Amino acid sequence: MNLARLEQDINSLPSEVQMEVIDYIAFLKHKYGKKKAGKVKQEVVGQTAGQLLKSEVVGLWKRRKITDSAMYARELREKAQQRGRS
After folding, report:
1. How far is CA 19 from CA 13, 24, 35, 39, 52, in A?
2. 3-state secondary structure of 64
3. What would the mean pLDDT of 2-21 be, rounded to a whole number?
4. Is the dihedral of CA 64, 60, 85, 74 positive or negative?
5. What is the rounded distance in angstroms from the CA atom of residue 37 to the CA atom of residue 43?
6. pLDDT (tens digit per residue) in 19-65
7. Of 27, 68, 83, 86, which has the fewest Cβ atoms less than 10 A away?
């Protein structure tokens, strides 16, 4: 895999489409990386607020322009379902 080429391809896309790429990667990580997801969940349980603020969990979505989180989640589910049908 040529990561430099992949990075060039992603950077050549409009910013909205780049966010879709990030969302799709998150979907794939969730679908195929359940062991790692479980690890993150375990790390979050029992942490103090200060520890959570320093973790990778907080700010995970900060680059996205989300005004209505429920609508955004609904759109992500619809996209994931459409990908599943392909």
Report:
1. 10, 9, 24, 25, 24
2. coil
3. 86
4. negative
5. 10
6. 888 888 888 887 777 555 455 555 556 677 777 777 776 777 677 77
7. 86
What is the span of the domain harbouring residue 48?
A: 3-85
Taking the C-alpha atoms of residue 86 and residue 82, their distance in angstroms, rounded to an integer, is 7
pLDDT of residue 68: 80
pTM above 0.90, yes or no: no
Q: CA nearest 26: which of 52, 71, 54, 64? A: 64
User: In the chain, how many domains are there?
Assistant: 1
DSSP of 2-62: -HHHHHHHHHTS-HHHHHHHHHHHHHHHHHH-HHHHHHHHHHHTT--HHHHHHSSSTTTTT
